[in-house]
Structure formats: structure tokens, C-alpha cells
Amino acid sequence: MIEVDPTVLENPRDDDYDSSGYDTSTASLTSSVNQYVFENGRRYHSYYGTDKYLMPTDEKEQDRLDLHHEIMRLAWDDKLHEAPLSEPHRILDIGTGTGIWAIEMADNYPMAEVTGTDLSPIQPNWVPANCRFEVDDAMLNWTFKEVKPRSCTVPGGHVELCENAITASCDDGSVKPDNPAKVYIDHLRAALTKMGRPPPDLEFMKSLLEKAGFEDIKVFQVKEPMGPWPKDPRLKRLGAMVLLHSDTSFESYGMAAFTRILGMEPDKAREMCEAARLAARNKNYHMYGQYYRVYGRKPAVKQ
Ligand SMILES: C[S@@+](CC[C@H](N)C(=O)[O-])C[C@H]1O[C@@H](n2cnc3c(N)ncnc32)[C@H](O)[C@@H]1O
């Protein structure tokens, strides 16, 4: 249970948090239209068609991903991973985005060769010498020697999964079913389920690793408060960062999901994203999301 900071609601007439000052109007439209589609003011990659990966790839999204990485660092106590690594030789980051995690892993483990892969070439050129990026579709047969993640992992090596639970929870009943942020999350979950990729839960993530033959599987979860309402100073800071992130995250996650998958009109979809963004700023709602990490170890070769 996350305890609410009583000073957050000192002035009951002033429900909203102060403006974060984050500029949300700087979408970039500079890349080749041959590789991208432009929709509702955002750039998406079109390689995959329009119903498989639903988030934009433009600069606004890249800023969001980097901010979210910092949120993850704070949420996970600065741990880039949970798996017990000592001297890793090879690290693969699938769906690396801007590559920020891969770059930090390369810095932390100079003995390792780190490869980040993504559908989009949005990674920087100046990276540590032991880090490189490749454009690759993880859903196709792998070019890393074998076909399945387990086969590509050395005996004794680890695979770690990290997922957004896509939930809007609260511990004190302050978030009702008709809360606009909750309504938004319910629609997002419906869209992901409709497209055959329901939001994962810990049991499902664990079962994937079990089925693939991994052992010593461990599961972890953290709460991401929406707004600086918690009393605990670390959670308060985390909540402030999540609120800043929410300036663009509702649109990033929601627009394509609502229009392409649920068939919603763009105006209605934007209204739903904006209502959720405003609800997130309301001090009376003590809402939080959750993140999951699950890792397993590939059995060592029997002597
Ligand atoms: C939500 S972003 C996360 C980025 C990064 N891992 C992070 O935490 O900041 C998901 C990334 O996965 C990539 N992606 C989606 N489907 C993919 C696929 N089939 N193969 C490779 N990358 C994929 C997207 O292009 C996007 O950059």
C-alpha cells in the first residue's frame, strides 16, 4: 500500500498539480516518408503494416522513451536488470528503442559485447566500443545462430522479460471505474487483447520461460505512482516523473490503438487520451501503474 502525503491536498480547491512545463508540441516529421506513415500528427514506422506495433517512432517518442528509462531506473532502485550477472560475454536487447539501456549495460559491463535490435534505426551513432545496434524484426527467424531466444542463450545464461502491466490501480478507492484514466486503460487493454497481444501478467510471463525450459525463474514487480501524491520521498519523486511522462505517454500508447484497432474516430480517441492526461494531474486520484520483470536461467550443460 502506498501512503498518501497529506500535504498534497492542503488546498482542496486546487485539485491539479502545477504544470510540468514539458513542451508537447515539438513532433518531428523529418524522416523518409517511404519508411514511415504519418498519422494524427505523429510518425509511425510502416514496415510492419499498421496493426502490429502501435507506438510512434518520432523525436517526441524518443524523448518519452529516454524519460521512461530514467523512471525505470528510479522504480527499480537503479538496477538495470534483476538476473544475477557477474561477467557476461554477450548481451542482447530486443526492441532497444533509443538504445539507452544497451548503452548503459555496455558501460557497466565492459567485458561484454552488447547488441541492441529494433525495427527502427533510432539509436545514436556515438556509443561505447562494446555496443552496436542492428535493425531486425524479432518476430522473424533469428540471425543469431539459432531460432529461439532459449537456443541463443549460452547454458547458464539468462533471459529477462520486462513489461508494462497496463493497469490503473489504487489502494484507497480514489480511482473509480469511470475515472477517465481508468476508462483509457480499459480501452487500451481491450485494443491489445483484440489484436491478439493481451497485456501480460506475471503468471503468463513466467509460463513463457517455463515452457522454453528455463529454470530458477524469479518474478518482480514495482508500482509507478501517477503524480507526486505518495508520502515516501522516493515514490513522490517517481510519481512526479511519471506525471511528466504522462504528458505524452497517453497519446503514444493510445492513439493508434484506439483508431486502428478499436475503430474510434481520431477526435474521440484524442479526447479519451486528453481526459486521461487531465485525470492524471488530479491530486485526488491516488493511481498507480505496475511494471514486471521476470528472469530465468538456461540449464547448464550436464557433464
Ligand atoms: C516501448 S518501446 C521500448 C524501447 C526500449 N526497450 C525502452 O525500454 O526504452 C518498444 C520497442 O520495440 C520495438 N519493436 C516492436 N516490435 C518489434 C519487433 N518485432 N522486432 C524488433 N523490435 C520491435 C519498437 O520499435 C520499439 O522501439
Number of strands: 9
Class derived from helix and strand content: alpha/beta
Enumerate how many helices there are, as a single number. 7
Task: Note poorly predicted spans.
Answer: 19-34
Q: Sheet bearing the most strands, described? A: 4 strands, antiparallel
Helix content: 25-40%
Sketch the topology as an H/E string, one letter per element.
EEHEHEEHEEHHEHHE
Q: What small-molecule ligands were found?
A: S-adenosylmethionine
Beta-strand residue percentage? 15-25%
Count of discrete structural domains = 2
Based on Cα principal axes, name the global outline. Answer: globular
Question: What would your notes on this structure say?
Answer:
There is one protein chain. With 303 residues, the chain is of the alpha/beta class. It has 2 domains: 59-81 and 155-303, no CATH class; 90-153. The chain contains 7 helices and 9 strands. The chain has helices at 59-75, 100-108, 149-152, 180-194, 202-211, 233-261, 266-280, and strands spanning 36-39, 42-45, 90-94, 113-118, 131-135, 158-164, 169-170, 215-225, 287-297. The strands form 3 sheets. Strands 6, 7, 8 and 9 form a 4-stranded antiparallel beta sheet that branches. The chain has a 3-stranded parallel beta sheet with strand order 3-4-5, covered by helices on one side. Strand 1 and strand 2 form a beta hairpin. The chain is globular, with a radius of gyration of 20 Å. It binds S-adenosylmethionine (SAM). It holds the Pfam family Methyltransf_23. One of its GO terms (molecular function) is methyltransferase activity.
